[in-house]
Design a protein that fits this description.
The chain is elongated and about 75 Å long. Strands 2-1-5-4-3-6-7 form a seven-stranded mixed beta sheet, with helices on one face. β4, α3 and β5 form a beta-alpha-beta unit. By secondary structure, it is α/β, with parallel strands linked by helices. 41% of the residues lie in helices and 18% in strands.
């Protein structure tokens, strides 16, 4: 066997195996954002069905859960009941906000009529908010402290426990900021 070919193969395979081993313990849904710990990017979003736009400033004072989603997204459909139940349970203590990503408003209205909604949803015209937050796909959820800082980010469909854990951390961030 040619030693040069063998040496080249080993030089190629060993680093790839090292990368694999290092990443084996990582949660694929845990994608850190460079925005965590920083002020949330400002936005102005039109509500589904019309009305006064929502801005980040209007969310200050209570923890907020910003969920980027779309009607064409199967994992979004899966997490929708979890978000609704949590929004109803937490009531006025935590603000839930749906931000519609790359979708048509008529599709969103139809979806919300059939699936229900326990919190307001807003259209992200031109994807400006998604770009500012670094959304790479849906669903993605951002947890915002009462003072407007991003506490955490979750990529993928949230289950009840993951959502509760992150809301608890967001609430704790409120205590720490006082």
């Amino acid at each position: 066997m040619n030693r040069k070919v063998l040496g080249f193969g080993v030089a190629l395979v060993v680093p790839l195996l090292a990368i694999l081993v290092v990443n084996l313990g990582r949660d694929p849904q845990r994608i850190d954002s460079p925005l965590i710990g920083r002020p949330a990017p400002p936005f102005s979003l039109a509500p589904v069905g019309g009305g006064e736009p929502l801005t980040l400033d209007k969310l200050r004072g209570r923890p907020a859960v910003l969920n980027f989603w779309a009607t064409w997204c199967a994992p979004c459909y899966e997490e929708h009941p979890v978000l609704q139940a949590s929004a109803r349970t937490l009531g006025p203590d935590v603000q839930f906000v749906g931000i519609v990503y790359e979708d048509q408003e008529e599709n969103v209205r139809s979806y919300l009529r059939s699936q229900g909604s326990a919190y307001p949803n807003f259209m992200d015209a031109g994807g400006r908010a998604a770009i500012a937050y670094g959304v790479s796909g849906v669903p993605e959820t951002y947890f915002i402290s009462p003072d407007g800082a991003i506490v955490d980010k979750f990529s993928g469909p949230l289950d009840a426990r993951s959502l509760a854990d992150r809301v608890a951390r967001t609430r704790a961030a409120r205590s720490a900021s006082r």
